[in-house]
Structures are given as C-alpha cells and as structure tokens.
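Example 5.3 — Thiosulfate reductase cytochrome b subunit
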Amino acid sequence: MSNDNPTGDQPEPKTEQPTAEKAAASKTTAGKGVRSTRTSTTRTSSTRSGSAKTTKADPRKKKKKKKKKKKIEKIGPFTPKQWLVVGPVGLLALLVIAALAVLGVRALLSSESVAAFVQLYPGEYHLPESAPVGLPAWLGWQHAFNVFLIVLIIRSGLQVRYQRKPPAYWKSRWGGDKISINLWFHQTLDVLWVLNGAIFVVLLFVTGQWMRIVPTSWEVFPNALSALLQYVSLDWPTENGWVNYNSLQQLAYFTTVFVAAPLAVITGVRMSGFWPKQNARLNALYKVEWARKVHFPVMLYFVVFIIIHVFLVFATGALRNLNHMYAAQGSTDPNAYAQNWTGFWFFFASLVVIVAAWLLARPMLLAPVARLLGTVSSR
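Solution (predicted structure tokens):
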C-alpha cells in the first residue's frame, strides 16, 4: 500500500486561534465604533441643542434691546420736561436778581459821590462839530432790510443746526458738494446780508454817519457806565436819538457793526461751501471746529441785542424812535414827532413782510428759486 506520508508523521492540525482573535478584535472595533458613533451622535445632538438654545436666546435679547427707552432729545442742557421746571424757576430767579439790582443801584445813586459822577458824566458826550444831525432815508432802508435778513438768517441757521433729515438737497451748477436746501437758503441770505452790510459801512464813512456809532472820545466809557446805572435804576437817560446816542448805545452799535458782524462773516465763510476745503494748509491754520465754537455764540449775541434793542425802542418813546429810523423824520426838539404815526406804519408794513417771508420760506417754495443756480433733489 502506498503511503502519502513516508515519514509516518501525523500532519499538524490547522490552528483556529488567529481567526477567533480576529473575530474578537473585529467585535471590539465594532463596539468601539458604535460607542464612538454614539458619543459623536450625543455630542452632535448636544451641540445642536446648545446652538438651538443659543438661537432661541437671541430673539429674546433682541426683544430686550427693542424694549429700551428711546433717548429723549435735549434742548440745550435740559429736556423739554426739565425746561418746564427750570424755565419758571430761572425766570423767578432773574426777577429777584433784577429787583435786588434796582434797589442796590438806587442806593448807590443816592450817595453824594455817585450822584456827582452821574452829574459829571450824564450818559453822553458831545459829538464832533462835523457830525451830521438826523438819520437819512438810505439809513432807514438799510436798517429795515437788515432786520428782514437777520431774522431769516437766524431762523434758517437754527434749522441747519437742529435738522435731522434735510427735506431736499441743492448742488451748484458749477460743481461742489451737495448741501441741504436749508443750508443753501441760509448761505444765500448771508451773501445778501454781507452785501447790504458792505454798502452800509461805505455809506457810513462817506456821509459822516460813522461818528454817531464810533467812539470819538475816551469819555465814552464813564458816560456808558453812567447810562448803565441809570438804566438799572429804572431812571433811564433821555437822550434825543435824532441828534446823538447815549454812550452805552454807541458802544453797543459799534460792537455789533464792527465786531460781531465781521466775526459772523469770518466764521460763516469757514463753514460754508465757499471755503477751499481741499487746501490742507488753510484748513490746518483755520480749523472748522474753531469757527463753529464762535459762530453760534455770535448768533446768540445778535438775538440778545435785538431783544434789548426792540424793547428800548418801544419803552423810550416808540412813535418818536420809529419815526427816526423808519420814516427819516425827527427834530432837535425830542417832542416834535412824539405823536406822529408815520414811522409806526412803515415799521408795521416791514413786520408783515418779515412774517410772510418766515411762513413762505419752505422747501416747496424755495426749490424753484434754488433751481436758478443749481439742481434740487430729494436725495
């Protein structure tokens, strides 16, 4: 019989151990895979839930932000409600201070030294002999036109300062930046005001009227102090404005014409479209922030001056004073035109024109005029 195994050795049986290890390893790997899958799934679900929570929380935050109170706009340092309290209290305080000032100055004037001072300096000094007497018609016209312009300039300036969204825009046909139509109106009035003022100053020096508002003697200062004491004591000086102003008036007019007006022009030009904004050297030498800090207080000065000026015109002989300025009528006798109503009616007519211009100065009516010099658009 043939034998396939000549040596007679028994063949080694096939080992099943590696297969079992592989199976166990595969099970372990599978288990780990399942665990890792579960872990990753858990993490993913937790991440999703976290993001969902975050997403859900966002709208609440937004809602909370929306619920915040709106900022109340202030008019100067106070809100409108605060002004309702501060205004009356401030007015009462001013009245108390004014009453104390009147009593204090009256006590001073009763003393011999102060009474002698007022007698020596009655409130005005004699003008040079070459000074003209009376007010010419051109001066009355210049004054009336100046009042018309300055009222609208103040109104349009406040609109520019406090406007949120301009109602319309204007751009010059010769190029330049686009500006609000309110600013265009303000600057147009400024140009007319400067031209009127230049003509006024030239005529002042040509006709000699400058001597009425430019101090020509150092006596102006003690006389101005005397006039101030008389005003505060309510025993007002009784000068004849057709012939001469008291020294306090003269200093006030001089300051307005030769100090405040030039400051308004210089600062206004820096803030306007006429300024060469691309000139870096000029911009560094004269910063726009400086102009803004001066321009607004100058406007407030004009407002205070106008209020005091108008009050004194009516409180010291309204008909006589209005005749001097609006009708060019007067006399060396202060009582000559004290009952004449001509100047009053001229003044009343000018008021009607000013009020009409105030009411009609709206974008819808300004736009056709603005289009003559440029383009008007809503954006």
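Remark. The chain is about 65% helix and 5% strand.
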